[in-house]
Please model this.
Amino acid sequence: MRTLTTRRWLAVALPLAIVAVLAVLAVLATVAAAAAMDSAEATLHSQDAKVSGSVHFTQEAAGVHVVADVSGVKPGQHGFHIHEKGDCTAPDYKSAGGHFNPAAAPHACDPTSPRHAGDFGNITVGADGKGHLDMTTTSLSFAGPNSVVGKAVILHEGEDDCKTQPTGNAGGRLACGVVEQQPMMHHH
Ligand SMILES: [Cu+2]
Model:
């Protein structure tokens, strides 16, 4: 009798528990999809086939989180910026125009302010030819005048001195990538 009651209770409670768990998972998936909506990516291309890289942009509460990885690059400091045109068609990447500077600010390096919205400063490349940059900036967004979408990421041959106007004297353009918004995972 007691076993039967327990079984009957389980027969009702178990499906309810499963439905509740599924509902929570659905809510979590929706939240995750919404959080992933504002993201963009640039794949770096170079005339030097050894050079490659990728840059990810994600909107977070504190600003746009930028994570860049490059490889096959000469060790040292390399100027790293957002340039105003998402056009990497010219072999010297001059087609990408100047630094992305919607506020007409002077050139400087992160974290100096004011500076160009596209001024990241330098990326440090180690003896293994690899460089990694991780920063969060409030100077970029995914909409409006400061939108990073459709601009270009430029990796320079040389070091940004963080003072020469308006370029930082970082030399030629080693690699270029157009910033493309990632497909939205969820629509409201
Ligand atoms: Cu640049």
